[in-house]
Amino acid sequence: MTQTTPENAAWKEFLLSTRSGDLVPADFKLIFVPSTAVIPEVIKVLVKNNISSVPVMDVETNQFSGLIDMIGLTPLLADLLTLVVATAEAKELVDVLCRNQVDWETFIQTELQVFRDQTIADMTNISERNPWAPVWEGFPLSSLLDMFSKNVNLHRVPIIDGDGNVVGLVSQSRVLEFLHKNIDKFPDADITVDSFWKPGHQPLVSVPIQEDAIVAFKQMFDFRVSGLPVVDSDNKIVGSISASDLKGSTEETLFSDVKRPLKDYLANCSRYFKRDPSSKPITCTINDTLKGVMAKLIEHRIHRIFITDDDNTLEGVLSLCDVISVLSGP
Question: Which domain of life does the protein's organism represent (predicted)?
């Protein structure tokens, strides 16, 4: 794929002649939250607008400081759950609760208040995980793809005009859809997965079905991924879980929901999001083509596809970033 050919040159010309601003939807509407917003307010904005992340406006500088997404909220959630569970198991706390006639529900509500009062300005990971890295609308598409490639791996990129005004927010999914519509211009659309993916080139992270849901969300944050395959004791893929699943919980049920076993949590998500509980995770094999993988990702509106062998044993994961990196050009 590194050899210069007329076909490769044509794809490169396409990436250079297409403007980044061409990917902004005509009906784009800027939605953001102030840095003083508390976490439950952020979750409500994400759920109401059916979005995965939202820009954060620093109220002191009147500038955007980054984007916040569901996975960015999990460290606080995990830390509070660890505190609640560990403290509840301590005999000293039980004695204190009994002596002061404080019931367990009151204790939980006290810890929940910490969650309710936490503002996103207090979270130090906003700019680190999701920096505000705008691209001028006149820059070529190739520049935008660089922001989504493995070297940078942003999930969303703001598009600005010549005056610095935000005119769009482009996601990896939007880029993939646009490139798929023009896939006939790409010379290697029919290459198979095994030609651009190799086992072991990156850590394969999964979560056993026997674990609680909170374990999966903590792993997502630790490994900087937004979703994980769920496997059984034989490493067969039996489901998937993503940060967006957190939007299925209310402020009152969030803590109890994520403490559920994964099997129960996923069943609850299926009911909330009206998914077919009998549906299987979307997978591919090393013999699938690049074009075919793109079609599956777009059709099912997913951000990753799991690579399995003929026995449904998990072998790897292809993210949108992986696919976009291949399409960045020779």
Answer: Eukaryota
